[in-house]
Design a protein that fits this description.
By secondary structure, the protein is of the alpha/beta class. The protein contains 16 helices and 12 strands.
């Protein structure tokens, strides 16, 4: 019995030792593999050497594909010009005579193009907004009236969300302009006017993603909006009224009255004032010039920093400082009305290479002045 127990004990010890050895061997193998994985090898070095030629090939492919996309989309837009016909003219007239608003609708990418078209129309004198066709089927159709004109965009012309609301729109008596890529499509058949925005192929290499077709629809929408604004006689001033913010609004809306200097900031001397008195007035008002006026404050001339430098360059006789200013002034200087646009003053100043402008009323009485810095501060320039 004792001998049997001893054999069992020895066997158990042998098993434990073998397990310990296996664990140690596994740990050593793991360490070796880790070192091997992180060590540089010929294959990795070869791959590193091949990166630059591979990158060059990729760059060539990228540039080639980009140029191809631009050529495809450019050709698609150019092809539209050959298909513009009386339907386009009818669409322009329909919008011009619309008593309500222009409602633009479309799904997916056509919807994005539609939103842009609605925004362009609204900013160029045609009240317009976008209605999502799916939302229209759930209540937003109430935003459309019989006095409106609807512009529906769909490349296939078979968009179910649009076709689901078209019969209801037509029942109201609303005019429908369709922009599609298929003149025989269902949407084109429903439309009062169809504008063909079809393309030969998409710019996508798979010929699947809307690329050339959306560009064509965008361009055709822009053509429609520009034709409408031209027919309305839409002016830069009209455009400014719908863009009052930013640099554009400043250029087209800010008048000289808004930026000119007046009252105590206004440099002026009587025409009998001395050159010395004129220089002191110029220095005090820091406008680089002073207006020369008569007893009624009507402008007789102007004297600038440049005039002063030229005067001193031609003489060393300082007694002229006590002589009257009127022989040295510029007579009949450029003047502006306070109601003129500041941008008009900029154009004259750039054309005549002058830095100051006098502002007068209808009786030629001095009421203000400004220089280029005033226009810069007002962000008109």
């Amino acid at each position: 019995m004792i001998a049997k127990f001893n054999r069992v004990t020895v066997n158990l010890a042998n098993v434990l030792m073998r397990n310990r050895d296996n664990v140690q061997d596994s740990a050593r193998n793991t360490t070796r593999n880790t070192i091997k994985d992180h060590a540089p090898n010929a294959s990795a070095q070869n791959t590193a050497h091949n990166v630059e030629p591979h990158a060059h090939l990729v760059s060539t492919r990228i540039l080639s594909l980009a140029k191809e996309v631009l050529h495809i989309e450019g050709n698609a837009v150019c092809a539209l010009a050959e298909r513009i016909d009386h339907h386009f003219v009818d669409a322009v007239h329909a919008v011009l005579h619309c008593k309500g608003r222009v409602v633009v609708s479309g799904m997916g990418k056509s919807g994005h193009i539609g939103r842009k078209l609605a925004a362009t129309l609204a900013s160029t004198g045609t009240p317009a907004f976008f209605v999502h066709p799916a939302e229209a089927r759930h209540g937003d159709l109430g935003m459309i009236t019989g006095d409106d004109v609807v512009i529906a965009l769909s490349n296939s012309g078979e968009t179910q969300e649009l076709l689901g609301i078209v019969p209801l729109i037509k029942r109201m008596g609303t005019q429908l302009i369709a922009i599609t890529g298929s003149p025989t499509s269902s949407l084109a058949q429903w439309a009062d006017m169809h504008l063909d925005a079809g393309v030969e192929k998409e710019a996508c290499s798979l010929n699947l993603a809307p690329t050339a077709s959306t560009t064509a629809a965008l361009a055709l929408g822009d053509a429609l909006a520009v034709a409408i604004l031209d027919a309305r006689g839409f002016s830069p001033e009209d455009f400014a009224r719908s863009h009052p913010g930013g640099a554009l609004g400043n250029r087209l809306l800010v008048s000289i009255r808004n930026v000119m200097r007046t009252t105590e900031q206004l440099p002026k001397v009587h025409k009998d004032a001395t050159v010395r008195e004129t220089i002191l007035e110029m220095t005090a008002k820091c406008l680089g010039m002073t207006a020369i006026v008569n007893a009624n404050d009507q402008v007789e001339g102007i004297f600038t920093d440049g005039d002063l430098r030229r005067l001193l360059e031609n003489t060393t006789d300082l007694s002229l400082l006590d002589r009257p200013i009127h022989p040295f002034m510029h007579q009949n200087p450029y003047t502006f009305s306070p109601n003129q646009l500041a941008v008009e003053a900029i154009e004259l100043m750039e054309k005549r290479r002058i830095n100051q402008i006098l502002v007068v009323d209808e009786k030629h009485i001095l009421i203000g002045a400004l220089n280029m810095h005033d226009l810069l501060d007002a962000k008109v320039v």
